């Protein structure tokens, strides 16, 4: 008779059969609670979790050469946990801000939400926050799974060991519409926005990203036109998430990201964005040079973020200026601000496509630091575009002149 290979599963099943034959077999129904107060085996759909199999105690050993007793790192021999996936493309969002932002998101299109996992173990203090997220989940018709005890291992595995604050949301991928260029500004169904040329995408991708060629933007109270960030070669997920967070806070209309040489949109990026990714209009670009060139033809003015240098604006067709000299460009044209990678900055072939090279003038006090982190630089550059309108700047200047004149009257 052919011998079957040994496995822990067969051994466990043998023990289970012995138990069933002794006390009678009872079929179990799926449950929605995991933890130490449940049975040794619990199932929910495709997921099966087992506990209590393995020795994780700390042992000691004696070094034969020195005679000293040394501790031996414990080996976790527990059976590995299987992560349940509602769909093969499911993503697991973790952390309070990310999960809450995803459940509150009203962007179109938006993610599909499948399950919300909440840790309810001992010494849990975030009771009010748990109730708030449960309310949001029920409002969005999302299944809620309570986890306690050893079930915490499941959450840790879903978040790849990163801090999750006791919340994991299983959802579809974040929509990122693939485009070849930006188009003209327009109004559709009483909503302001701009047209885009949609790139090819598969049927599965279209179900996630949508197919609309119109990008809606909030109406600016100063009448300014949209600002779109274009990110090329941003490889650090923390920087990518930080840039999206900054852009959302300052009022950037959309963020376009080069797909071939940038960090993938992982849960790390989502956590670094503190939930801003869930409400920001995100675009993906496969051909950056063509994207910039065609967008310029459609009326978009393009700025290339560069480091201060004597070579800035060396090409006759490109103007070079500091953020101090930037005077409300969005009052005249919709603008694209290009930012390059952490190491070498924006690639030369992308710089050559710009209308203006824009740099941040430093204080000149340091001989060792001549540049800024790309996430920090993004905040300063975006603020230069969005902080004040021409009208506000003119009023501020008139007020300063009036105050200066008044002070002269008192002096003389």
From TrEMBL:
Coarse class of the protein's main subcellular location: mitochondrion
InterPro entries hit by this protein: Alpha/beta_knot_MTases, MRM1, MRM1_MeTrfase_dom, Ribosomal_eL30-like_sf, SpoU_MeTrfase, SpoU_subst-bd, tRNA_m1G_MTases_N
Protein keywords: Methyltransferase, Mitochondrion, rRNA processing, S-adenosyl-L-methionine, Transferase, Transit peptide
Superkingdom of origin: Eukaryota
Listed SUPFAM superfamilies: alpha/beta knot (SSF75217), L30e-like (SSF55315)
Subcellular location: Mitochondrion
Molecular function via GO: RNA binding; rRNA (guanine) methyltransferase activity
GO CC terms: mitochondrion
Compositionally skewed regions (Polar residues) per UniProt: 57-69
UniProt-annotated stretches for the region Disordered: 1-75
Domain RNA 2-O ribose methyltransferase substrate binding: residue ranges: 92-177
Keyword Nucleotide-binding: no
Composition-biased stretches (Basic and acidic residues): 8-20
Cited PANTHER family: RRNA METHYLTRANSFERASE 1, MITOCHONDRIAL
Family: Belongs to the class IV-like SAM-binding methyltransferase superfamily. RNA methyltransferase TrmH family.
Protein known as: rRNA methyltransferase 1, mitochondrial
Classification of source organism: Eukaryota, Fungi, Dikarya, Ascomycota, Pezizomycotina
Gene responsible for this protein: mrm1
């Amino acid at each position: 008779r052919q011998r079957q290979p040994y496995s822990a599963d067969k051994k466990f099943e043998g023990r289970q059969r012995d138990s069933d034959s002794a006390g009678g077999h009872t079929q179990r129904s799926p449950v929605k609670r995991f933890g130490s107060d449940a049975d040794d085996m619990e199932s929910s759909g495709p997921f099966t979790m087992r506990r209590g199999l393995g020795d994780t105690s700390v042992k000691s050993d004696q070094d034969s050469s020195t005679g000293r007793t040394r501790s031996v790192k414990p080996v976790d021999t527990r059976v590995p946990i299987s992560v349940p996936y509602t769909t093969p493309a499911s993503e697991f969002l973790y952390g309070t801000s990310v999960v809450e932002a995803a459940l509150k998101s009203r962007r179109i299109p938006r993610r599909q939400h499948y399950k919300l996992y909440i840790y309810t173990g001992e010494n849990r203090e975030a009771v009010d926050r748990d109730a708030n997220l449960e309310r949001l989940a029920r409002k969005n018709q999302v299944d809620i799974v309570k986890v306690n005890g050893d079930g915490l291992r499941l959450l840790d595995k879903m978040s790849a060991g990163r801090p999750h604050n006791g919340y994991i949301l299983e959802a579809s991928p974040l929509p990122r519409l693939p485009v070849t260029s930006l188009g003209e500004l327009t109004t559709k169904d009483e909503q302001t926005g701009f047209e885009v040329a949609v790139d090819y995408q598969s049927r599965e991708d279209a179900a996630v990203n949508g197919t609309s060629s119109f990008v809606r933007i909030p109406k600016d109270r100063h009448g300014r036109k949209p600002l779109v960030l274009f990110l090329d070669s941003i490889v650090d997920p923390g920087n990518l998430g930080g840039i999206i967070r900054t852009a959302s806070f300052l009022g950037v209309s959309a963020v376009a990201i080069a797909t071939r040489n940038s960090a993938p949109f992982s849960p790390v990026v989502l956590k670094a964005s503190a939930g801003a990714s869930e409400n920001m209009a995100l675009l993906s670009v496969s051909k950056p040079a063509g994207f910039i060139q065609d967008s310029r033809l459609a009326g978009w003015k393009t700025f290339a973020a560069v480091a201060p240098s004597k070579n800035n604006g060396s090409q006759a067709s490109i103007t070079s200026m500091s953020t101090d000299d930037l005077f409300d460009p969005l009052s005249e044209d919709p603008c694209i601000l290009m930012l390059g990678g952490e190491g070498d900055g924006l690639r030369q072939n992308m710089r050559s496509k710009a209308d203006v090279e824009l740099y941040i003038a430093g204080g000149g006090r340091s001989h060792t630091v001549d540049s800024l982190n790309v996430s920090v630089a993004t905040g300063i550059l975006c603020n230069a575009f969005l902080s004040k309108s021409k009208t506000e700047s003119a009023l501020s200047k008139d007020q300063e002149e009036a105050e200066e004149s008044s002070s002269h009257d008192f002096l003389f």
